[in-house]
């Protein structure tokens, strides 16, 4: 049985036509199913586990990168196959998975190419796409061997799993491999403040790692899958379990 989790933003009338086309095509493929509209206060883990008990075998996330992260940051360990049906903008994860945006995503769902993908873990919660710490005075220790310190200035840290790291300075995009048993950290020290106090960064350094500790004497912001918190110390590592995900033939890994 298929269950489709619709993001709340899809209620806007601009998405009416594409959703009608999607639902028609899913019916034609014989993979239509129960539709649940997500609420911001609802626990994705409880919702998914309830549907598994009712017989769900495939849970499809319908929305964008934020929707994807919202569901899987809590429900990543649920024993079910996940699919992604991207709608609208902000869909860089869909590109990595090789899933087209809009109606064509139904073709990928119907083909059911499945892979096991890595999941990140930070301070008792999962992250599936990306973790971001904007320029801060932080110290980084990874794999209990290497230390990077920001004593000379601020650093930005991005830890990628599925969502690619884009360095706008030179238009580069780094796509990581979500099956290699490691996470990738991108560290960019701030060189100076430019016009309008905008940061100017050094070239990013890339560190594959299995476990990382980030700490500071003052709280620093941490954004994971759309959620922002203030921390003084976090531990980042791979979760023990992986997720089974339907991917497209054009995936980037």
**What is the element string, with H for helices and E for strands?**
EHEHEHEHHEEEEEEEEEEEEEEE
Number of strands: 19
Give the CA-CA distance, first to last residue: 28 Å
Number of structural units classed as domains: 2
Based on the coordinates given, report the CATH architecture of the largest domain. Answer: 3-Layer(aba) Sandwich
Low-confidence stretches: none
Structural class: alpha+beta
- The CATH class of the largest domain turns out to be Alpha Beta
Q: What proportion strand?
A: 35-45%
Query: Cα-atom Rg, whole angstroms?
Result: 19 Å
Largest sheet: 11 strands, antiparallel
The count of helical stretches stands at 5
Give the overall silhouette: elongated
Tell me, rounded to a whole number, the average pLDDT: 89
* The CATH homology group name of the largest domain: Probable inorganic polyphosphate/atp-NAD kinase, domain 1
From the 3D structure, determine the CATH topology of the largest domain. Rossmann fold
Helix content: 10-25%
What's the SSE blueprint?
Blueprint: E1 2-6, H1 16-29, E2 34-37, H2 44-53, E3 58-63, H3 65-75, E4 81-86, H4 92-97, H5 105-111, E5 113-117, E6 120-122, E7 125-127, E8 130-136, E9 139-142, E10 146-149, E11 155-160, E12 165-167, E13 172-174, E14 183-193, E15 199-201, E16 205-209, E17 211-224, E18 227-238, E19 243-247
Parallel strand pairs: 1-2, 1-3, 3-4, 4-19
Antiparallel strand pairs: 5-19, 6-7, 6-18, 8-11, 8-17, 9-10, 9-17, 11-14, 12-13, 14-15, 14-16, 17-18
Helix pairs in contact: 2-3
